[in-house]
Design brief:
binds pyridoxal-5'-phosphate; 14% strand; 2 domains; alpha/beta; 7-stranded mixed sheet; single chain; 4-stranded antiparallel sheet; Aspartate Aminotransferase, domain 1; Aspartate Aminotransferase, domain 2; 13 strands
Length: 404
């Protein structure tokens, strides 16, 4: 039933999440009894570590569950400060940490607390779908810079330089990246830091390190604080427990930055969501501090490494599909441009993904909402058998198509 309810211009400008749209269609087909295999998930398929589950159930049985302090419990803020401090090679005070309801919420708070109308936020494309919308929602202007598979899906100083200037408020770096899995080396980060410092000396860097622990083939995520030694006073770090600890549903993320930002973002949080859920903060504290957790994280990482090999092998059998080997996260970003456009059966990647879902019952996410048409993002956060069968179905389906 529709009504004449008028939504705001702000709401009208926000695109619905493409990933959620594919998941909804896949769920619909499943409900109709179809055996859908999904490469659409943006989350690990594991349970949170055992100690986390036990801590939550014990606390829920024995403690009153009251409002938590708005910026996070002191114990969790200190644990976050210690964990981020170890990775970034510096000391964070408690008042430099804000705990929020997921890293997505941390980013929204960051932009709401810092952007004025017209402020530019630079991000490389393909990008995580939420960055441009969040920037726009806060009144900023997202500026996207295309990257290429040939250049490993990474920003280069040459590509970045022309868009930097006095209006640049932030440059977002996401390493390893969603959707490509590409990770920056220390030298690459240093070179980006140098061009930012020289062309946009008042800009800040946002480093979204949510996938930093899910890395493969010996790749190690480097902290921007460590690599960009000359400009460490202008970096905001975004992180959280969702991906490393398979805790997406707990909704805990955090930001480390200057006290002025943390206190402004905390004021915004105090008038919107209040603090993150009390039980989830307990869960996050356990994830960050219990000595049994790292071994479970390593077991998950090893499983992802195996699945990554499986999906790369499986996609190598599909004609007209080119993949850049990801350094981390749990996605491959497949170039399917030979199967879309003039001369091909499908005009766009969105049409191709819809066709694969309907005809082959395989869910993938089109590249267009990530700022890279002609691609499909495939998540390998699913079991080995589904990866093998899903790749077989894709190869079989694509073999029937004329290529452009
Ligand atoms: C690059 C990136 N940053 C941040 C997030 C947000 O994670 P959460 O809000 O679950 O902490 C995601 C989730 O998909 C992501 O891919």
């Amino acid at each position: 039933m529709t009504s004449d309810f008028a939504i705001s211009k702000r709401a009208a400008a926000i695109k619905p999440s493409a990933t959620l749209a594919v998941s909804a269609k896949a769920a619909e087909l499943r409900a109709a009894g179809k055996e859908v295999l999904s490469f659409a998930a943006g989350e690990p398929d594991f349970k949170p570590p055992k100690a986390v589950r036990e801590a939550v159930s014990q606390a829920s049985l024995s403690e009153p569950i009251r409002y938590a302090p708005v910026p996070g419990t002191p114990a969790l803020r200190d644990a976050v400060a210690a964990e981020l401090g170890a990775f970034h090679g510096r000391t964070f005070a408690r008042n430099q940490i804000l705990v929020s309801c997921g890293a997505k919420h941390s980013l929204a708070n960051l932009f709401l607390a810092s952007l004025d109308p017209g402020d530019a936020v630079v991000v490389g494309a393909p990008y995580w779908v939420s960055y441009p919308d969040m920037v726009g929602l806060a009144g900023g202007v997202p500026i996207t810079v295309s990257t290429t598979r040939a250049a490993g899906w990474k920003l280069t100083p040459d590509a970045l330089e022309p868009v930097l200037g006095p209006k640049t408020r932030f440059v977002i770096l996401n390493s390893p990246s969603n959707p490509t899995g590409a990770g920056y080396t220390r030298d690459e980060l240093r070179a980006l830091g140098e061009v930012i410092a020289s062309k946009a000396p008042s800009a800040w860097i946002v480093t979204d390190d949510i996938y930093r622990n899910l890395v493969y083939d010996g790749f190690e995520a480097t902290s921007a604080f460590v690599a960009m030694a000359g400009i460490t006073e202008r970096i905001v770090a975004i992180d959280g427990v969702s991906k490393t600890y398979a805790m997406t549903g707990h909704r805990v993320g955090y930001m480390a930055g200057p006290v002025e930002l943390i206190s402004a973002a905390s004021r915004i949080q105090s008038q919107t969501t209040s603090g993150a859920a009390t039980l989830s903060q307990r869960a996050a504290l356990t994830a960050l501090t219990d000595p049994s957790v790292p071994a479970e994280v390593e077991a998950m990482r090893t499983a992802f490494a195996r699945r990554r090999s499986l999906i790369l092998e499986g996609l190598a059998q599909a004609s007209g599909v080119e993949v850049q080997r990801p350094d981390g996260a749990f996605y491959v970003f497949a170039d399917v441009s030979r199967h879309v456009g003039a001369g091909a059966k499908h005009a766009t990647d969105v049409e191709l993904a819809t066709w694969l879902l309907q005809e082959s019952l395989v869910a993938t996410v089109p590249g267009t909402p990530f700022g890279a048409p002609g691609h499909l993002r495939m998540s390998y956060a699913t079991d080995d058998a589904s990866i093998e069968e899903g790749c077989r179905r894709i190869a079989k389906a694509l073999a029937t198509l004329p290529t452009a």
